[in-house]
């Protein structure tokens, strides 16, 4: 693979937080944003505003919750986390259109984009499964 092929593939598989904000405002019904982070609930209590929460370890059992007619945008913790990549592989193998949000929730928060704090009634499971 040459450099051009690499960068074309990278751009095809990812979307930056800025590009996602712009695209989702222009066509909000085109996308579904999913938080696929695993880990203890107390560290996952802040999520990107409007994101569905489907931990990567539950994804294979919850495919019916994900629409095939939307582009699925996945995110995890940060640039060092590969949880979204693992989730993307599962979704791609099942016929979904998928991109990874570059930088995860860390980049999103750094840009001061909207987040939500989960309440007790939306408590997440504590086992990591990482």
What does this structure look like?
The structure is a single chain. This protein is an alpha/beta fold and 130 residues long. The protein has a single domain (3-122), classed as Rhodanese-like domain (Oxidized Rhodanese, domain 1, 3-Layer(aba) Sandwich), CATH 3.40.250.10. The chain has four helices and seven strands. The strands form two sheets. Strands 1-6-5-2-4 form a five-stranded parallel β-sheet. Strands 3-7 form a two-stranded antiparallel sheet.
Question: How many beta-strand elements?
Answer: 7
Number of domains: 1
Q: Outline the low-pLDDT stretches.
A: 120-130
Helical content (DSSP H or I, runs of 4+): 25-40%
Tally of contiguous helical segments: 4
What is the level-2 CATH architecture name?
3-Layer(aba) Sandwich
Return the structural class: alpha/beta
Shape: globular
Gyration radius (Cα, Å) is 14 Å
CATH homologous superfamily? Rhodanese-like domain
The ordered H/E elements are: HEHEEEEHEHE
CATH class: Alpha Beta
Query: How far apart are the first and last residues' alpha carbons, in Å?
Result: 30 Å
Strand order of the largest sheet: 1-6-5-2-4
Strand content: 15-25%
- What fold name stands as the CATH topology? Oxidized Rhodanese, domain 1
């Amino acid at each position: 693979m040459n450099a051009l092929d690499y960068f074309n593939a990278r751009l095809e598989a990812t979307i930056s937080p800025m590009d996602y904000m712009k695209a989702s405002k222009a066509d909000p019904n085109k996308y579904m944003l999913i938080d696929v982070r695993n880990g203890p609930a107390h560290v996952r209590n802040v999520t990107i505003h409007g994101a569905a929460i489907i931990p990567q370890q539950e994804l294979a059992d919850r495919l019916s919750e994900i629409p095939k007619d939307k582009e699925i945008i996945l995110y995890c913790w940060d640039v060092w986390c590969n949880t979204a990549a693992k989730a993307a592989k599962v979704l791609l193998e099942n016929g979904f259109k998928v991109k990874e949000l570059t930088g995860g929730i860390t980049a999103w928060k750094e840009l001061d984009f909207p987040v939500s704090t989960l309440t007790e009634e939306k408590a997440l499971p504590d086992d990591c499964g990482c």
